[in-house]
# Entry
Amino acid sequence: MTPKQLANDKRVKNFVDIARRYCTFMESVGTTKKRDFIHGCAALIPELYLHIIPILNMPYHDEMFETNKESLSPHNGRKIYNDISRKLSKDNRYHELYDPYDNEETVGTCLADDLAGIYCDIKRGLNSFDCDGQGIFDAVFCWKLHHFHWGNHCCSAMRPLHELIVRYHEKD
# Structure
Protein backbone atom coordinates (compact mmCIF):
# COMPACT_ATOMS: atom_id res chain seq x y z
CA MET A 1 0.00 0.00 0.00
CA THR A 2 1.31 3.44 -0.89
CA PRO A 3 0.96 6.52 1.32
CA LYS A 4 -1.49 7.98 -1.20
CA GLN A 5 -3.65 4.84 -1.11
CA LEU A 6 -3.68 4.93 2.69
CA ALA A 7 -4.53 8.66 2.74
CA ASN A 8 -7.40 8.05 0.31
CA ASP A 9 -8.82 5.10 2.25
CA LYS A 10 -12.35 6.09 3.30
CA ARG A 11 -11.71 5.03 6.91
CA VAL A 12 -8.64 7.23 7.17
CA LYS A 13 -10.32 10.16 5.40
CA ASN A 14 -13.29 10.00 7.80
CA PHE A 15 -11.01 9.93 10.84
CA VAL A 16 -8.80 12.75 9.55
CA ASP A 17 -11.90 14.89 8.98
CA ILE A 18 -13.18 14.51 12.54
CA ALA A 19 -9.64 14.79 13.95
CA ARG A 20 -9.18 18.15 12.18
CA ARG A 21 -12.56 19.36 13.43
CA TYR A 22 -11.70 18.35 17.01
CA CYS A 23 -8.28 20.03 16.93
CA THR A 24 -9.65 23.20 15.34
CA PHE A 25 -12.39 23.31 17.97
CA MET A 26 -9.86 22.92 20.80
CA GLU A 27 -7.67 25.63 19.28
CA SER A 28 -10.64 28.03 19.31
CA VAL A 29 -11.61 27.42 22.94
CA GLY A 30 -10.86 31.03 23.84
CA THR A 31 -13.52 32.37 21.47
CA THR A 32 -16.22 29.82 22.29
CA LYS A 33 -18.90 30.31 24.94
CA LYS A 34 -18.66 27.84 27.80
CA ARG A 35 -21.98 26.15 27.06
CA ASP A 36 -21.14 25.83 23.35
CA PHE A 37 -17.73 24.44 24.29
CA ILE A 38 -19.25 21.76 26.51
CA HIS A 39 -21.82 20.80 23.87
CA GLY A 40 -19.18 20.75 21.13
CA CYS A 41 -16.90 18.47 23.13
CA ALA A 42 -19.78 16.12 23.91
CA ALA A 43 -20.58 15.90 20.18
CA LEU A 44 -17.03 15.57 18.81
CA ILE A 45 -15.57 13.04 21.24
CA PRO A 46 -17.95 10.17 20.40
CA GLU A 47 -17.34 10.88 16.70
CA LEU A 48 -13.59 10.56 17.19
CA TYR A 49 -14.05 7.27 18.99
CA LEU A 50 -16.51 5.99 16.40
CA HIS A 51 -14.15 6.76 13.51
CA ILE A 52 -11.01 5.23 15.06
CA ILE A 53 -12.63 1.78 15.33
CA PRO A 54 -12.35 0.98 11.58
CA ILE A 55 -8.72 2.15 11.65
CA LEU A 56 -7.92 -0.07 14.63
CA ASN A 57 -9.15 -2.99 12.53
CA MET A 58 -6.85 -2.11 9.61
CA PRO A 59 -3.81 -4.36 9.26
CA TYR A 60 -0.42 -2.92 10.04
CA HIS A 61 1.80 -2.44 7.01
CA ASP A 62 5.55 -2.86 7.06
CA GLU A 63 5.85 0.83 6.20
CA MET A 64 4.23 1.72 9.54
CA PHE A 65 7.23 0.28 11.36
CA GLU A 66 9.67 2.52 9.52
CA THR A 67 8.54 5.37 11.69
CA ASN A 68 10.26 8.70 11.31
CA LYS A 69 10.72 9.63 14.98
CA GLU A 70 11.08 13.32 14.10
CA SER A 71 7.60 13.49 12.59
CA LEU A 72 6.18 11.92 15.77
CA SER A 73 7.58 14.50 18.16
CA PRO A 74 4.93 15.28 20.79
CA HIS A 75 2.80 18.37 20.30
CA ASN A 76 2.92 20.84 23.17
CA GLY A 77 -0.60 20.99 24.56
CA ARG A 78 0.11 23.26 27.55
CA LYS A 79 -1.61 26.28 25.97
CA ILE A 80 -4.67 24.19 25.05
CA TYR A 81 -4.75 22.75 28.58
CA ASN A 82 -4.57 26.22 30.15
CA ASP A 83 -7.23 27.66 27.81
CA ILE A 84 -9.60 24.77 28.57
CA SER A 85 -8.95 25.10 32.32
CA ARG A 86 -9.84 28.79 32.19
CA LYS A 87 -12.95 28.09 30.10
CA LEU A 88 -14.28 25.40 32.43
CA SER A 89 -13.14 27.15 35.65
CA LYS A 90 -15.01 25.52 38.56
CA ASP A 91 -16.39 22.79 36.27
CA ASN A 92 -12.93 21.49 35.37
CA ARG A 93 -12.40 19.11 38.33
CA TYR A 94 -14.27 15.82 38.68
CA HIS A 95 -13.87 12.36 40.26
CA GLU A 96 -13.59 9.07 38.42
CA LEU A 97 -12.65 5.43 38.74
CA TYR A 98 -9.73 4.49 36.54
CA ASP A 99 -10.72 0.83 36.40
CA PRO A 100 -14.48 0.23 36.60
CA TYR A 101 -13.81 -3.46 37.36
CA ASP A 102 -11.59 -2.77 40.36
CA ASN A 103 -13.03 -1.81 43.74
CA GLU A 104 -10.89 1.27 44.17
CA GLU A 105 -11.42 4.76 45.47
CA THR A 106 -12.32 7.58 43.13
CA VAL A 107 -9.51 9.78 41.89
CA GLY A 108 -9.67 13.53 41.35
CA THR A 109 -8.88 14.62 37.81
CA CYS A 110 -9.91 17.34 35.38
CA LEU A 111 -11.59 17.70 32.02
CA ALA A 112 -8.78 19.92 30.75
CA ASP A 113 -6.38 17.00 31.13
CA ASP A 114 -8.74 14.70 29.20
CA LEU A 115 -9.50 17.15 26.41
CA ALA A 116 -5.89 18.33 26.02
CA GLY A 117 -4.64 14.72 26.16
CA ILE A 118 -6.95 13.78 23.29
CA TYR A 119 -5.85 16.90 21.41
CA CYS A 120 -2.13 16.18 21.78
CA ASP A 121 -2.35 12.57 20.59
CA ILE A 122 -4.63 13.44 17.67
CA LYS A 123 -2.65 16.56 16.67
CA ARG A 124 0.59 14.62 16.77
CA GLY A 125 -0.82 12.25 14.15
CA LEU A 126 -2.24 15.10 12.05
CA ASN A 127 1.15 16.80 12.00
CA SER A 128 2.66 13.60 10.61
CA PHE A 129 -0.21 13.05 8.18
CA ASP A 130 0.29 16.52 6.73
CA CYS A 131 3.92 15.68 5.90
CA ASP A 132 2.72 13.26 3.19
CA GLY A 133 4.79 10.24 2.23
CA GLN A 134 6.01 8.29 5.25
CA GLY A 135 4.18 10.76 7.49
CA ILE A 136 0.85 9.23 6.48
CA PHE A 137 1.99 5.81 7.70
CA ASP A 138 3.38 7.44 10.85
CA ALA A 139 0.05 9.14 11.53
CA VAL A 140 -2.04 5.98 11.27
CA PHE A 141 0.51 4.09 13.37
CA CYS A 142 0.44 6.90 15.96
CA TRP A 143 -3.37 6.97 16.20
CA LYS A 144 -3.54 3.19 16.53
CA LEU A 145 -0.66 2.98 19.02
CA HIS A 146 -1.84 5.83 21.24
CA HIS A 147 -5.54 4.93 21.11
CA PHE A 148 -5.22 3.27 24.54
CA HIS A 149 -4.29 6.70 25.94
CA TRP A 150 -6.58 9.11 24.11
CA GLY A 151 -9.39 6.52 24.04
CA ASN A 152 -9.35 6.43 27.85
CA HIS A 153 -9.51 10.22 27.90
CA CYS A 154 -12.52 10.10 25.54
CA CYS A 155 -14.37 7.70 27.80
CA SER A 156 -13.43 9.60 30.97
CA ALA A 157 -14.52 12.97 29.58
CA MET A 158 -18.00 11.90 28.45
CA ARG A 159 -19.46 11.36 31.92
CA PRO A 160 -18.63 14.82 33.33
CA LEU A 161 -19.56 16.47 30.01
CA HIS A 162 -22.96 14.78 30.18
CA GLU A 163 -23.40 15.96 33.76
CA LEU A 164 -22.49 19.54 32.80
CA ILE A 165 -25.00 19.50 29.93
CA VAL A 166 -27.71 18.32 32.34
CA ARG A 167 -26.78 20.93 34.97
CA TYR A 168 -26.68 23.82 32.52
CA HIS A 169 -29.90 22.68 30.83
CA GLU A 170 -31.68 22.78 34.20
CA LYS A 171 -30.52 26.38 34.72
CA ASP A 172 -32.08 27.55 31.44
